[in-house]
Amino acid sequence: MADLLPSRPPASSSTPLAAEAYRAFFVARNGRVTGMVPVQAASLDEACFLARALVEGDEVVELWAGLRTVARFEHDGGSSPLS
């Protein structure tokens, strides 16, 4: 039976890690969500960098990982990591 299971790649394999899926929501000052774009990133730091670059005008960008908000970015350069 064990012969039927797929084998795992060796630990020394150079297979790249899969990027995690985040979502960046555009939020107007009145709190209404005006749009969303998927963000693929290898780390939370990279996802924050990409989401911060999406801020335009007086909208706010909220970065989500699954059902959890992880950061919020504003046009004035302000940001707040959320826990």
Topology:
Blueprint: E1 20-27, E2 33-41, H1 44-52, E3 60-65, E4 68-74, E5 79-81
Antiparallel strand pairs: 1-2, 1-3, 3-4, 4-5
Explained architecture:
The chain is mainly β and 83 residues long. The protein starts with 19 loop residues before the first strand and ends with a strand. The chain has one domain. Helix content is 11%, strand content 40%. The protein is built from one helix and five strands. Strand 3 and strand 4 form a beta hairpin. A five-stranded antiparallel β-sheet has the order 2-1-3-4-5, covered by helices on one side. The relative contact order is 0.19.
Structural class: mainly beta
Q: How are the strands ordered across the major sheet?
A: 2-1-3-4-5
Distance between the ends: 44 Å
Low-pLDDT segments, ≥5 res: 5-16
The general outline is globular
What percent of the residues sit in helical stretches (DSSP H or I)? 10-25%
Helical stretch tally: 1
Rounded to an integer in angstroms, the radius of gyration calculated over CA atoms is 18 Å
Overall residue-averaged pLDDT value:
80
Task: Give me the count of strands.
Answer: 5
Spell the H/E element sequence. EEHEEE
Strand percentage: 35-45%
What profile does the largest beta sheet have?
A: 5 strands, antiparallel
* Domains, number: 1
In short:
This protein is mainly beta. It has 1 helix and 5 strands; from the N terminus they run ββαβββ.
